[in-house]
Amino acid sequence: MRSKIEGAPSFAYIHVDLDPGESIVAESDAMASMDSDLDMKATFNGGLVSALLKRFLGGESLFVNTFSNNTRKTRRVTLVQKTPGDIKEIALKGNAICLQPGAYVASTPGVRLAVRWAGFASWIAKEGLFKLFCTGQGILWIGAYGGILFRDVAGAYIVDTAHLVAYEPSITLKPKLAGGLFSSFFSGEGIVTRVEGKGKIAIQTRSLEGLRDFLNPRLY
Amino acid sequence: MQVEIQHGPANAAARVILNAGETLTAEAGAMIAMSGSMKVETTTLKKGSGGVLKALKRMIAGESFFLNHFTAGKAGDDVWLAPTLPGDVTTLDLGAEAMIVQGGSFLACEHQVNVDLGWQGFKSLFAGESVFWLKIKGPGKALVTSFGSVYWVDVDGEYIVDSGHIVAFPESLKFVVTKAGKSWISSILGGEGLVCKFQGKGRVLCQSHNAQGFGGALGPLLRPRN
Fold it and tell me: How many whole angstroms from its chain centre is CA A24?
């Protein structure tokens, strides 16, 4: 399998060339175009119970698609997320990473997707009650609205609500006021997420919630 | 006519430089800046000829009723054109063969290029796209817009493109609206639904992003209209 991210950072998409016998898993509706003889099959997003939880509590899609190359030639599928923004590749070598709702784009078959309770702290920080827990061996593609920044956290780091995209399981989230009571309400920062521990985090440079808050007062 | 595309793929604008007396036809509302000596004429069809019927047909295809014609007063006069959504602008060099352009993607063309409605029949209705597409016929240059960046797909045999990702394709390519997977259940459950399967030989211009997909992600966050 060979893959290439193009159009980054504003409109990233992934060209994936599958050799005979290979397959790739992608978020529902992620396919933009593909060779017509690739096989596409919808499966539950991490098992039935997990998929239902994700759909009704986590706001994720119920199904993911598996694209398999059962031909004798290399075949291409082009994948994209719903929002404009960047896509990044994360290599998993037995380690795990937690994704916020909407961050998952695609993964190779060796990556296992499961739903985990993210906790009320995550929910208060507008990051969702559930997280997608990815483990195994392979490549994972994550997407964001805007650009993606990676930060190595050792100790504590503050991220604005709805900007955290992914984090390693060694990291814990705590909602927190941005400053004192006064500055938290008047600085426009309000509640922020305090991430604690040692590990990598991914941050998106824009948020759909930010766009929502900009647009809503302007709608008539 | 000379075209320079700048600030792509996220916020592309096309700078079109004209010779004296040369005319460019553009979608109403596409102009963002131009030389002071540029002459502008607004018609429902081609410069110098009426055609309310054709304008109506164009409007059905999701384009505007009026077209603007920019004629250079002197050599080197320029006009800047841009679409509403973020995304790219692509120049199509039309030969003898007509191209079909997705309703909404047409931006501008050289004056001699013919813009007409291309009826794609009921099959495009089922693909969730507008039923009407524009048919542009050269020879000449045309500019089309996309939501996101663009890539070309060389079809030789069969190729599937999700209907929201098609920008333009040659008229000679056949297409059928079909399911993306082997089974209908998988196609519907997988969120891909109906897709376009192109058949034949030719190049399809695809856009990386799907405006309806983004609308689907943003829409539920917006407050309802009163």
Answer: 16
Instruction: Please state the separation of Cα A107 from the chain's center in Å.
Output: 11
Q: Residues in chain B whose beta carbon is closer than 8 A to a beta carbon of chain A?
A: 9-10, 86-88, 148-149, 151, 153, 157-162, 165, 180-183, 185-187, 189-192, 195, 197, 204, 206, 208-210, 213-214, 216-218, 221-223, 225-226
Q: Are A87 and A105 in contact (CB under 8 A)?
A: yes
Q: State the DSSP string of A4-21.
A: EEESTTTB-EEEEEEPTT
Q: How many residues does chain B have?
A: 226
- Are A132 and A90 in contact by the 8 Å Cβ rule? The answer is no
Q: CA-CA distance, B74 to A214, in Å (whole number)?
A: 43
Residue A126 has pLDDT above 90, yes or no: no
Query: What is the structure's pLDDT at B175?
Result: 85
Residue B224: asked if its preceding bond is cis (omega within 30°), the reply is: no
Per-residue pLDDT reduced to its tens digit, A43-88 = 877 677 777 776 666 556 778 899 999 999 999 999 999 999 999 9
**Rounded CA separation B39/B54 (Å):** 23
Rg, C-alpha atoms of chain B: 18
- What is the pLDDT at residue A50? 72
d(CA A64, CA A113): 10
Contact A41 B182 (CB under 8 A): yes
ipTM metric: 0.85
Local mean pLDDT, 10-residue blocks, chain B (226 residues)? 92 96 90 93 63 65 73 95 93 92 89 77 50 81 95 96 92 86 73 84 96 88 81
Q: Which residues of A touch B (CB under 8 A)?
A: 6-7, 10-13, 15, 28-29, 31-37, 39-42, 61-65, 78, 80, 82-84, 102, 208-209, 211-212, 215-216, 219-220
All residues of chain A having their beta carbon less than 8 Å from the beta carbon of residue B162 are 29, 31-33
pLDDT confidence band for A24 (50 / 70 / 90): very high
| Encoded tokens for B220 | 């539920």
Helix (H) or strand (E) run with residue B4 in it: strand B2-6
Supply the pLDDT for residue B94: 95
**Cα separations (Å) of A111 from A25, A27, A65, B122, B171?**
9, 13, 14, 41, 42
